[in-house]
Amino acid sequence: MNRALEGKVAAVTGASRGIGLVVARALAVEGASVALLARDKDRLALAADGIADSFALRTDVGDPDSVRDAFAQIRRRHGHLDLLVNNAAVAWPHTIEASTDAQLQAEVATNLLGPIYAIREAVPLLRAAGGGHIVNVSTESVLDPFPHLLVYAATKAALETLSAGLVHELKRERIRVTLLRAGRTDGSEFRAHWDPDAAARAEQDWIAGGFRGRISAAVPQPPERIAEAVLFAVTRPEGSMIDVVNVRACS
Questions:
Q1: How far apart are CA 81 and CA 83, in angstroms?
Q2: Is 177 in a helix, a strand, or coil?
Q3: 8 Å CB contact between 179 and 136
Q4: In 3-state terms, what secondary structure has residue 182?
Q5: What is the rounded distance in angstroms from the CA atom of residue 109 to the CA atom of residue 221?
């Protein structure tokens, strides 16, 4: 059977869990050799064990040296790259006034600088392949930012601006860029490390502001819908590009 990504090399950040892991699996099923980038060593190893023709690269995307090392390993292993999916992201509920330095630095480093670092290292490898594709994963909350998650939404909004500009900057390199704006998705561990008290305060403000109704109105979509959208975008024939796609849950 002819697989759509046979012989291609892909890199996925935040690939040890959630959406990133499901996307990595889908790319591998279509024949890609997939580099899994994530910080959690144990979960990363477990993820790689379950995906054929994959390799784990323990990476903190917010650390430029860590990103350089990861892509240097991809270069040594394959010599090129065909596809980069920037999926890694972190967030904690907090108001701007109550935010800590560590929270702000981590959110900006992971959600915005991380994709920039990864793209910077990926471009020469994509060029070596004769062109390729970058997919940047954003969030529907950029359209209506939630209180207590404003920094998260702001970093993703900046990623969207970056994506729009990269379409033009990388066009002559034959590198396509897709912004994938994801809605509420099942199986996400987005809230896994939230402080219960901070989460409770956020919930109260969301209810008071009418945000809770919008959150609960839609049944979460399975992460496979995100993976399907990624596959559709990156397998378009040359001469076509899906530059923005919204994959949102509906009731």
A1: 6
A2: strand
A3: yes
A4: strand
A5: 28
Report residue 192 as tokens: 């896994």
Q: How far apart are CA 46 and CA 30, in angstroms?
A: 20
> Which residue is listed with tokens 């990926």?
122
Single out the residue of 51, 56, 38, 118 nearest to residue 81, CA to CA.
118
Which member of 152, 181, 221, 230 is catalytic? 152
Nearest alpha-carbon partner for 112 in 131, 139, 133, 132:
139
Residue reference for tokens 């378009």: 236
Distance of alpha carbon 168 from alpha carbon 67, whole angstroms = 24
Nearest to 73 by CA among 87, 59, 53, 89: 59
What structural domains and CATH numbers belong to the chain? 9-237 (3.40.50.720)
Which residue has 């070596």 as its token pair?
128
pLDDT in tens, 85-120: 999 999 999 999 999 999 999 999 999 999 999 999
Percent of the chain at pLDDT > 90 equals 79
Q: Convert the pLDDT of each residue in 136-146 to its tens digit.
A: 999 998 998 88
Q: Is 117 a catalytic residue?
A: no
User: Distance from first CA to last CA of the chain, Å, rounded?
Assistant: 36
3-state DSSP assignment of residue 38:
strand
Kindly report the backbone phi and psi dihedral angles of residue 56, in degrees, each rounded to the nearest multiple of 5, phi listed first: -90, 135
d(CA 115, CA 155): 11
Q: How far apart are CA 128 and CA 92, in angstroms?
A: 38
Token couple for 115 = 């994709």
- Measured distance CA(86)–CA(73) in Å, rounded: 18
